[in-house]
Design goal:
By secondary structure, this protein is α+β, with helices and mostly antiparallel strands. It contains 19 helices and 25 strands. It has 2 domains: 301 residues, FAD/NAD(P)-binding domain, CATH 3.50.50.60; 175 residues, Succinate dehydrogenase/fumarate reductase flavoprotein, catalytic domain (Flavocytochrome C3, Chain A, domain 1, Alpha-Beta Complex), CATH 3.90.700. 33% of the residues lie in helices and 18% in strands. The chain is globular and about 115 Å long. Bound molecules: flavin-adenine dinucleotide.
Length: 604
């Protein structure tokens, strides 16, 4: 049974992958949606994702003969750091079907899979070209955009910063206030917060400075929109947060030699280690399991000698050549014609590089012969033959594209200098299995969240590829839950392709709302300044809302005249003038009392 509201729309805040997954799902279930994003373009950090999205038991895996299951994936995710089995169950059990939803509903190519750190099977999906976060997110944005152009089922409002949640009589969320071009507006309906994390807020009163002041000096991979807005808006109405102190520091931020101190850094895709990239210290030695957890690899880096290098031999780089060429073009990776040239540039003996590779090769060969043997504890489980990582207690178990030491001298390499970077906020607003936001006495009605703003999904460490997945899974779960909240039994299946008369055809490189490359705007470029200048000139074309609202009896919602709610929220209304009116009444009372006492009371 639906809760009866004078609204048939779900408000989604944030147009990253979580937000656009939610929007598309609302539409697919017969609801309407309005997407609000504070940036000039939608996409957020989701467009930066470089390795891919996890899925267990997918078509792609089956075609490649990869044996995987949602059970194994669940175990890996719990071992990787997650603490809430009921939430992990939702994440992992939906993974295969949701990855296939991306392929089927949006014509996306997710035909390659890699094994990232902490995964017992190759299950991180990407396409053959371009970064997967960008291709996936752009496609989903463009679908919402098409629906908005062709129907009344969707609206997208950019350069619009949500500032406050509106609550009804029982504390349920009934809408929000946003600011656009210096003017306040309101939207009404249940809200799905998809505002991302807070890993780029280095201001003095940021969540980062409150919960992790020790990380404030580090660079970040996050876009400047990551300021924890959703968490702050939720907390302001009594939502509970969880795990805010768990901020993931990723081991492979890419150092640009001619701009080594840049605060915002590119990330070396985790898949570079998945295809066989090795991490070497200043002296050319391995010191960790490249496929260990991110917090572990970072921890080992803190104990070792920088600069650290991520080194890909020919077979490894061939497997991920689009990425290598892209990074090289951006000046954050370098191509060496031979191992000899690499050793020279590093200032180490060629023999050292040969030995590092040979020891790794031998460990791999021994693992091939005797997978359960070895004298070191392995990660995620079992025994390892690899001494370099075994000594750390997290021995290497999986090997790919290995070469013997003798091949190093003449082999070409792609190499990057890497450093630890702030990357991902595991903490956020606490959610239940439906993505409903928890308050002090249970779930807050009408409020959901998905993506990085949601806390408690990954515990104290997130495995690579699990964030894009949580955006899609919880974007969909919340999309369904919020639509059900307003429509109840009136929910109905809508085919996106039919609705848009054919859906998306071909690769989506950009669109009106998903433009540009984030990399062009890193570290304050001209593009940013241009966007800000455009912000200053927002024109309001629609009529202003009436000066008073007509509250609907028994409902927490406000009726907005004209049916459109993307209007300035209101002009000064009765409540705004209440203070002045009360002052006037009190003053009149004072004058009346003075006159009564002095002139009207009979004198003794
Ligand atoms: C460099 C990099 C590489 C990554 N690679 C991978 C990977 O390969 N696989 C993986 O699984 N994960 C990866 N991640 C993590 C993953 O990309 C993000 O965690 C995830 O995409 C976050 O998605 P989101 O939708 O929650 O938020 P975002 O994509 O960050 O979107 C948030 C949106 O909300 C908007 N917003 C914020 N506040 C407001 C407000 N007050 N009002 C209106 N709008 C607002 C922002 O403008 C933004 O558009 C990577 C992250 C980075 C930074």
């Amino acid at each position: 049974m639906a809760t009866v509201f004078p609204t048939d729309q779900v408000i989604v805040v944030g147009g990253g992958l979580a937000g656009v997954s939610a929007c598309n799902t609302v539409i697919e279930n017969g609801g309407k949606t309005v997407l609000i994003d504070k940036s000039s373009f939608c996409g957020g950090n989701s467009t930066k994702a470089t390795s891919g999205i996890n899925g267990a038991a997918t078509r792609t895996q089956k075609e490649k003969g990869i044996d995987d299951s949602t059970d194994l994936f669940t175990k890996d995710t719990l071992k990787g750091g997650a603490k809430k089995p009921e939430i992990v169950k939702v994440l992992c059990e939906n993974s295969g079907r949701d990855v296939e939803w991306l392929m089927d509903a949006f014509n996306l190519d997710l035909s390659l899979v890699a094994r990232l750190g902490g995964h017992s099977a190759p299950r991180t999906h990407r396409g053959k070209e371009r970064f997967p976060g960008m291709t996936i997110t752009y496609a989903l944005i463009q679908m919402v955009e098409k629906v908005a152009e062709m129907t009344d089922k969707a609206r997208i409002i950019t350069k619009a910063r949500a500032t406050k949640l509106l609550t009804g009589s029982e504390g349920s969320v009934v809408g929000l206030v946003y600011e656009k071009g210096g003017i306040e507006f309101q939207e009404h309906g249940p809200v799905i917060l998809c505002t991302g994390g807070f890993g780029a807020d280095f201001t003095a009163n940021s969540l980062l400075s409150k919960y992790r002041p020790d990380l404030m000096h580090l660079p970040t991979t996050n876009g400047e929109h990551c300021t924890g807005d959703g968490i702050k808006m939720g907390e302001a109405i009594g939502a509970k947060s969880i795990d805010l102190e768990w901020v993931q520091v990723h081991p492979t931020g890419l150092v640009k030699p001619d701009d080594a101190d840049a605060k915002i850094k590119f990330l070396a895709a985790e898949a570079l280690r998945g295809v066989g990239g090795l991490i070497l210290d200043k002296e050319g030695n391995r010191f960790a399991n490249e496929l260990g957890r991110r917090d572990y690899v970072t921890g080992e880096m803190w104990k070792s000698k920088p600069p650290f290098r991520l080194v890909l031999n020919k077979a490894a780089s061939d497997e991920i050549i689009w990425h290598c060429k892209h990074y090289t073009g951006r000046g954050v990776m370098k191509y060496y014609e031979s191992g000899e040239a690499l050793a020279k540039d590093m200032g180490v003996a060629l023999a050292t590089l040969e030995q590092s590779h040979e020891l790794h090769y031998q460990a791999a060969k021994k693992t091939e012969k005797d997978p359960d043997g070895g004298s070191f504890p392995a990660y995620p489980s079992g025994k390892s033959w690899d001494e370099a990582s075994g000594k750390t207690g997290s021995g290497k178990k999986f090997y790919h594209n290995i070469i013997p030491g003798s091949a190093v001298k003449t082999q070409p390499f792609y190499v990057a200098i890497i450093t630890p970077v702030i990357h991902y906020c595991m903490g956020g607003l606490e959610i239940n299995e439906e993505g409903g936001v928890m308050g002090s006495s249970g779930v807050i009605k009408g409020l959901y969240c998905a993506g990085e703003v949601a806390g408690g999904v990954h515990g104290n460490n997130r495995l690579g590829g699990n964030s894009l997945l949580d955006c899609v899974v919880f974007g969909r779960v919340t999309g369904v839950a919020a639509t059900k909240y307003i429509l109840g039994d009136d929910m109905k299946k809508v085919d996106l392709k039919e609705l848009t008369k054919g859906g998306l055809s071909g690769e989506v490189k950009a669109s009106k709302y998903s433009g540009g490359s984030y990399e062009d705007n890193m570290n304050k470029t001209a593009g940013d300044a241009k966007a800000k200048a455009a912000d200053a000139k927002v024109e309001v074309k629609w009529p202003l809302a009436p000066s008073t609202h007509e509250g609907i009896p028994g409902s927490p919602y406000l009726l907005v005249a004209g049916g459109r709610s993307d209007q300035p929220s209101r002009r000064a209304c009765f409540e705004d003038n209440l203070g002045a009116i009360m002052f006037g009444v009190l003053a009149a009372c004072g004058v009346f009392a003075f006159v009564s006492i002095n002139y009207l009371t009979p004198q003794p």
